[in-house]
Design a protein that fits this description.
This protein is about 60% helix and about 0% strand. The N and C termini lie far apart (about 80 Å). By secondary structure, the protein is an all-alpha fold. It contains 14 helices and no strands.
Length: about 325
């Protein structure tokens, strides 16, 4: 009987008596080297796969994107820049030539001064600012209250009212403009700036925007506030309102642009020349027998300046409101 214990090698593949191949320094087996596999291998003997970096664009994709951006920029900004160029061209420069120049050869601000001499442009600007201010404040207050009531309060016919707001978006404004004028005339607000601003003080789209913003607030926050004894006004002031400031900025910008650029409704309501808004008053620059496109372009730039200022001030809140989707804290 032998005292030496015999040891056996591990069996590979179920075949007894076959020794396991010796691994190399990289971890690949001898059989793997014999098969001619190329490329880096993992420590466990598996071949590594090259992974493409996520979000990395090729040069061709970058060139294509920049070309598309330039085309879109030219389409959107091109007409505005051309109006600006026309407003700065002097009277001695021909703007009706077959090959007009983009850069004025005789730049001047005299066209803007001529606009102020032809019409009371500052009075029209003041009237437009009054109408825009009423609409902005009205939409911020009433759209916020209506959106909060639809999103966070429980009451009868809530879904029916929400459906009515959605239904009003289907009708174009021209379909109800006659009934609006009759209503404004019956309450004695015809030929007044309040009558111009009243129909735009609350827009269905703004109510739906606020409804969607308030709906993003988690229900647990409201429930905790109710358990602490907060009423609806306190929940709106301390919880809901700070969470939707970006959306309020969006509503303010949309309301201001809508009131400032509106032409048809002020044209119907207003009759007195001294109460005209800027968009309606600028039509006096186009005479019956003579039209100076330089003055019209200058008037267009004057009407554009307040919109640019408002958007520049509120752009940070505007983009915050566009991507606003929840409560940050």
């Amino acid at each position: 009987m032998s005292n030496t214990a015999s040891t056996s090698e591990p069996v590979v593949g179920g075949n007894a008596g076959v020794a396991a191949p010796t691994p190399d320094v990289t971890g690949a087996t001898g059989g793997g080297r014999a098969s001619g596999a190329k490329g880096p291998t993992a420590p466990d003997g598996r071949k590594r796969r090259r992974r493409a970096a996520w979000g990395v664009m090729s040069t061709r994709e970058k060139v294509l994107r920049y070309v598309l951006l330039v085309v879109v920029l030219f389409i959107t900004i091109g007409p505005f820049l051309w109006q600006l160029s026309t407003s700065l061209k002097g009277t001695g420069e021909d703007i009706y030539t077959a090959n007009p120049s983009f850069i004025p050869s005789q730049p001047t601000f005299g066209n803007y001064l001529r606009v102020a001499d032809a019409i009371p442009v500052f009075g029209y600007i003041g009237n437009s600012l009054v109408v825009a201010a009423i609409d902005v404040v009205g939409n911020i207050v009433f759209a916020t209250l209506a959106g909060f009531a639809l999103a966070r309060l429980q009451w009868r016919f809530r879904k029916l009212v929400l459906g009515l707001f959605l239904a009003t978006l289907v009708l174009p404004g021209e379909a109800t403009i006659i009934s609006q004028f009759v209503t404004i005339k019956d309450i004695g607000l015809a030929d007044s700036l309040v009558g111009v601003a009243l129909p735009g003080m609350i827009a269905a789209l703004n109510v739906l925007l606020m409804f969607n913003a308030f709906r993003q607030i988690p229900e647990e926050i409201d429930q905790a506030a109710v358990m602490d004894g907060a009423n609806a006004v306190q929940r709106l002031r301390y919880i809901a309102f700070p969470a939707v400031q970006g959306t309020i900025a969006v509503i303010a910008i949309f309301s201001f642009i809508g009131a400032w650029d509106d032409f048809l409704w002020p044209l119907i309501v207003l009759q007195s020349p001294d109460k005209l808004t800027l968009t309606v008053g600028l039509q006096y620059l186009q005479g019956t027998f003579a039209t100076d496109q330089r003055m019209i372009a200058a008037g267009t730039m004057i009407a554009f300046i307040p919109i640019a200022v408002i958007f520049s001030v509120l752009q940070r809140f505007f983009f915050k409101g566009v991507e606003e989707g929840g409560v940050k804290g």
